[in-house]
Amino acid sequence: MTEPTGDELVRLLGTLANPHRLRIVAALLAERAYVSELARELRISRALLQVHLRKLEAAGLVTASFEVGEDGKTLRFYELTPFSVVLTPAAIAAAVPTLTTPESVRGDGEEGRT
Amino acid sequence: MTEPTGDELVRLLGTLANPHRLRIVAALLAERAYVSELARELRISRALLQVHLRKLEAAGLVTASFEVGEDGKTLRFYELTPFSVVLTPAAIAAAVPTLTTPESVRGDGEEGRT
DNA sequence: GCCACCTGCTAGCTTTTGTTTGCATGTGGA
DNA sequence: TCCACATGCAAACAAAAGCTAGCAGGTGGC
């Protein structure tokens, strides 16, 4: 996570560039929580929270796992994945060369042939 | 810039979460440039570049200034504003309390009354 | 005068994001 | 059985972001 690729950086930034998601990160830093609980804590609907959690998960910032609570209910716990990225012009310049454009994406990696 | 407010952080992240803008930052780190020149270098239209530059400027990441070139033409030069932000769960948690919600915005700061 | 290059602006379209609403399912306890 | 609480998913809509196309104005050089 010290030197993300350009695409990863864009995804990471795009994922964190949202008030709800920042609050989620902050809440999960304090302690892991299951969906419904977290929704109540943050005062947002479960559906909305789910969308945001999915995005955070897709970016690798949080991880989910099912667990059975004391009362036997199945709960989906989310917890934070530690990360640390330094945002400076130099760091950005280093990531830019690895940015892929829609067209430059052929297979997955670059294969040299036209 | 060491400890941006929640809103500033969101704007900063949102501004950088774009391939074009990252490229612009990288290009300006190498050297300041005027609009048309930069557009050619980045292979994007001037109109598009302008939109992105505007956004970067709004976020305080770049600054603009008019200058007269050797041939007497008026050029608008852009240059990078140094910045450094560390992105970690803790840093985010620190910024979250200062996030404002559309409703919580009355005057500007908080005034206690309902 | 005409061409080349600089600047700026915006109306309008497309795409992506964000959000709500509503339905379907499963389990434990009264 | 019925209620309370947990999960998941999708359709539909609203809002924001991204991009293009086109017009307009200015200056220097041939």
TrEMBL record, chains A, B:
Gene3D superfamilies: Winged helix-like DNA-binding domain superfamily/Winged helix DNA-binding domain (1.10.10.10). This is ArsR family transcriptional regulator. PANTHER family: TRANSCRIPTIONAL REGULATOR, ARSR FAMILY (PTHR33154), TRANSCRIPTIONAL REPRESSOR SDPR (PTHR33154:SF33). Keywords: DNA-binding, Transcription, Transcription regulation. It comes from the Bacteria. Residues 11-95 form the HTH arsR-type domain. SUPFAM superfamilies: Winged helix' DNA-binding domain. It holds the Pfam family HTH_5. It comes from Amycolatopsis heterodermiae. CDD domains: HTH_ARSR.
